[in-house]
Design a protein that fits this description.
Elements: H1 2-11, H2 15-44, H3 47-57, E1 58-63, E2 70-71, E3 77-89, H4 98-108, H5 112-121, E4 128-134, H6 136-144, E5 150-159, H7 167-170, E6 172-173, E7 179-181, H8 182-186, H9 188-191, E8 196-202, E9 208-216, E10 224-225, H10 230-246, E11 251-258, E12 264-270, H11 289-292, H12 302-312, E13 320-322, E14 327-330, E15 333-336, E16 343-345, H13 346-352, H14 355-363, H15 367-376, H16 403-409, H17 419-430, E17 434-435, E18 450-451, H18 455-469, E19 486-496, E20 499-513, E21 520-527, H19 536-539, H20 541-554
Helix pairs in contact: 4-5, 10-20, 12-14, 12-15, 12-18, 13-18, 14-16
């Protein structure tokens, strides 16, 4: 027995020991293999791990480009892009803890249930905006929570320093910085920048750790300098708003043009809106009425009727026109004056604003000649200013005119215009018969203009319009002390389903100064004044006077009126 135990102990190996040795050998080989693999990957061949790491943490992100600045003619800002942060999240990476989401909602300033619903509805996405364009304090509160899956993205928000004062001209952009109204829309391609792209390294929480490479540089939008003068713009806005409130009017518009270049120096409307507010009020308040809304111009068309008559050679400024007995039967219609003016000459027809006189002059001309002058002055077609939504107005072809249409067109009924079209036509009278090209952007020099009237005719009509603002004229309240002013009043009955109203009017004044060598042209439109007075000479003319007086002073235009005291009548007007 003793020999057998020895044999067993010395002649044969212990199975347990053998197994242990095999296992240790396997572990040793595995360790050597792992060590060899580690040396291979981390020392001899690093590309693989680098590619795998980059695949998990390298991302291509957009580089935002700011929109070009909009400035007035003197370089003052009208629209600026300011950098802001937007909060976004990866719903799959957000914590499921509702208390954490409640803290996030509180930091964002929104109801928790609303945030939960938004995330739940977009759970399959990897990118969801939680709130756009937040202030720095909100962004700091959100990031201080340290929630996984919540990030900031740099964007730009548009800011309008003049608010509602220039809102109808400048317009606004949406939350994605795309133009929606006004110059922002009409010149969107010019102003909009092109985003760039870069490759960045992010950590496991999605935060950018390092910029790796710039793939495409961002191209900022180009700046745009408008012809608008913010000083004149504020003046026009202030006076128009005051007049609309004073007369309890439904609305109003004012346009101020440079008579030499056709540049829009000021344009305001009421009601207005604040483009810095996201809600921006009712849609009707966003409309640039001076460009988009049409109206019958009334007596402000009489100077162009007279221009056609003077151009024909059949009339002179002193040609007599019999307006007795203050009415004129034309087919089945009756043209009336407010009273019997008796025997007038052409100049007095304009100064007294005689409808009968204007109709008789028009009926003495071929319809084609009268229509031709209106068409040459730009009525019936847009001004090609480039402003979005500009209306064409209405000017029927003369072949569709009957005798009544020819007579009523002479004093501004049966056709429709915009305030901008009317201002441009008066600019042709101011520029000795040359129709300027209207421009919202500032011009480097004078653009081409079109000869539409003989210079002699334009000067004669301009002289007649000076009489309108002088003693005995309907536009005495448009006078500006120290300056010669030429212009015309208009009071238009508004048309409705049952015909022309006896209670709803549009009050107008269109004019220029200084009349000796016009620098500025302005048109004032007050829609439905309801506080007593409604004549253009009472409602619109004073607005013209105040705006023109301030504008001439701001532009340092020298006076051209004779020295001495000037009496400005402030009483009620008796005519249109």
């Amino acid at each position: 027995m003793r020999w057998q135990r020895h044999e067993s102990a010395g002649g044969r190996a212990d199975p347990a020991l053998a197994r242990r040795r095999v296992v240790l050998a396997c572990f040793a080989l595995a360790g050597l293999a792992l060590a060899g693999r580690a040396v291979f990957l981390q020392v001899l061949n690093t590309d693989f791990l680098r590619r795998q790491g980059e695949a998990r943490h390298l991302r291509v992100v957009s580089v935002p480009a700011h929109r070009g600045m909009i400035m007035d003619r003197n370089g003052e800002p009208l629209a600026i892009s300011t950098p802001v942060d937007s909060v976004w999240a990866d719903p799959g990476a957000l914590p499921a803890d509702r208390r954490a989401l409640a803290r996030l909602a509180q930091a964002l300033g929104m109801p928790a249930e609303r945030l939960v619903r938004r995330i739940a509805a977009r759970r399959e996405r990897e990118f969801v905006y939680l709130r756009r364009h937040v202030d720095p304090a909100t962004a700091a509160r959100v990031m201080a929570l340290g929630l996984p899956g919540v990030h900031l993205q740099r964007e730009y928000r548009r800011y309008y320093p003049m608010g509602e004062v220039a809102a109808h001209v400048v317009g606004f952009t949406n939350i994605d910085d795309v133009g929606q109204e006004g110059v922002e829309l009409g010149w969107d391609r010019w102003l909009r920048g092109e985003p760039g792209a870069k490759r960045v390294l992010k950590d496991r929480l999605g935060r950018v750790v390092r910029d790796v490479a710039l793939l495409r540089p961002a191209r900022p939008g180009r700046d745009l300098r408008l012809a608008l003068d913010r000083r004149l713009q504020y003046l026009a806005y202030r006076e128009l708003k005051a007049a609309v409130l004073r007369h309890r009017a439904r609305g109003g518009s004012i346009v101020v043009l440079d008579a030499r270049t056709g540049e829009v120096l000021a344009m305001a409307n009421q009601p207005a809106y604040n483009p810095n507010r996201r809600d921006r009020g009712p849609r009707t308040a966003r409309r640039n009425r001076a460009v988009t809304d049409v109206f019958e111009p009334g007596s402000t068309m009489k100077p162009f009727t007279v221009a056609a008559a003077l151009e024909s050679g059949r009339f002179r400024p002193d040609t007599p026109v019999d307006t007795r007995p203050g009415l004129l039967r034309v087919a089945d219609a009756t043209v009336r004056d407010i009273r019997n003016f008796g025997l007038l000459d052409v100049t007095e027809v304009v100064r007294r604003s005689s409808n009968v006189g204007a109709a008789k002059i028009a009926l003495a001309l071929p319809a084609r000649r009268l229509w031709s002058v209106y068409a040459r002055l730009g009525f019936g077609r847009a001004t090609a200013s480039g402003f979005p939504g500009e209306a064409d107005g209405v000017l029927l072809d003369h072949r569709r005119w009957h005798v009544v249409e020819q007579a009523t067109a002479a004093f501004g009924y049966g056709l429709s215009v915009t305030a901008l079209q009317l201002a441009r036509a008066y600019a042709a009278l101011a520029a000795d018969g040359r129709l300027p090209q209207v421009s919202f952007p500032r011009r480097a020099g004078n653009a081409g203009s079109e000869r539409v009237l003989p210079a002699r005719v334009a000067r004669q009509v301009r002289a007649m319009l000076e009489g309108v603002v002088g003693p005995g004229g309907t536009g005495r309240r448009a006078a500006v002390p120290g300056y010669r002013v030429a212009g015309k009043t208009g009071t238009v009955r508004k048309a409705g389903p049952g015909g022309y109203s006896d209670t709803r009017y549009v009050a107008l004044f269109a004019g220029m100064a200084p009349a000796s060598r016009p620098r500025l042209v302005a048109v004032v439109v007050i829609d439905e004044p309801r506080a007593g007075a409604y004549y253009g000479g009472e409602v619109a003319a004073p607005v013209f006077a105040r705006v023109m007086a301030g504008a001439l002073r701001l532009l340092d235009v020298p006076p051209d009126a004779p020295r001495g005291p000037m009496h400005v009548a402030l009483g009620a007007e008796a005519a249109t």
